[in-house]
Known about the structure:
Elements: H1 10-40, H2 45-53, H3 55-81, H4 85-112, H5 114-120, H6 128-140, H7 142-147, H8 151-154, H9 161-185, H10 190-214, H11 230-261, H12 266-291, H13 294-302, H14 306-333, H15 335-340, H16 346-360, H17 363-379, H18 382-389, H19 395-408, H20 410-435
Helix pairs in contact: 1-9, 1-10, 1-12, 2-6, 2-12, 3-4, 3-11, 3-13, 4-6, 5-6, 6-10, 9-10, 11-18, 12-14, 12-16, 12-17, 13-17, 14-16, 14-17, 16-20, 17-18, 17-20, 19-20
Amino acid sequence: MDTFFDTEHLYRSYFKMAFPVVLGLVVTLVYNLADTFFIARTNDTDLIAGVSLCAPVFTALMAFGNIYGQGGSSLISRLLGRQDGESVRRVSSFCFYIALATGLVLAVLMTAFNRPLLLLLRADEDTLPHAFQYYIVLAVCAPIMVLSFIHSSLVRCEGMSTESMFGTVLGAVINIILDPILISAAGMGAMGAAVATVIGYFCSVLYFLRLLRKKSRCLSVRPSLCRVSGGELRQILGVGVTAALSNLMQSLCVIVLNQFLLPYGNDKIAAMGIVLKINMIAQLVLTGFAFGGVPLFGYLYGARLRDEMGKLVRFCLAFISALSLVLTALLCLFASPLMGAFVEDPAMIATGAEMLRWQAASTVFAGIVLLLTVLFQAMGKVGAAFVLSVSRQGLVFVAALLVCVKLFAYDGVLMGQAAADVLSALIALGLLACCNPMGRNSPGKPEL
């Protein structure tokens, strides 16, 4: 079987994998910012808030895709370390078809229960019409959205990180072209933004299917290979569900945050919606460098190359911490101009700038949590990955938010994420010490 990674030059291999992931995720952010930019230019607060309220829907669909995309890629990376090509073909085919089936089920449920779900997202009589227009397009097209997150992860296991980036960029470019046409020229508003997004993701799905047929050496979508063992299914779901929990918890946290901001007005919700997308620039850069190492982490762990793994983990921790500090400085210094790129209202710019500085303050701790979460996922350490998946933007966040709000009222809403990041980073470092994946190289059969 082919060797997909140069383990003699770990740092070079890491950056070769990570840079395209970072670029792809930044382009994905542009994807989302394009919607926000064109909608914000309408200066309709209810329209901006309505689309912002639907952010958890997009994140939830991404989460279901990540169950099979990240869960599958973790297992496939370790199988490649074991040189087990036949199992790689079976697992990749299974991930594709189970994702398609999951998307179809979600489409039915989300369409049938659209009003209760929109009310759960805190849509009111002013924002509900706009939120529904955006939501219903995503709901009906859920299979496309879920599928789009599968092969962008799986192809990187073969070392095709650049090709993965191209698939993401293709969808983003199409979305950006269609946004002004559908939102403004065609007068479709929120629905136009959603339609542009779905068309972009559909084009990405078609690109990846063609890539597998033309270039992949071991991935497959053949229905006859769509089967996995019980142990493989537990690995896919164990790792994948923890990855999905990170996204679902993020959605929950947005809902909770909006609930705490609601008494202060829709303008605060609208400002936070923009702030979270701006802050996503830093988060996606860090996520890209974290996820860029997943295929390499899994390969090294599967092949029992622990010395090399320890060297790579220590380097990544130092690199991501330094990068986080730079991103924090940039976001804090340029908070007002960044807000001003989306809205013209001085009051909203000032409100958003304060929110953004609080969101950016703990970026270094968020980076540590991100890196160690994906490390545990790559190793198949389901328990540790689960704990981190429900901490930073989950249970720890909710607990920190409640305490901060109790102590500082509105300011506490803004500082809740920073407090959660610090606490979650301490938990992550403690779990790393307990798991100890950085011992000496182990002889014998590679691990699964």
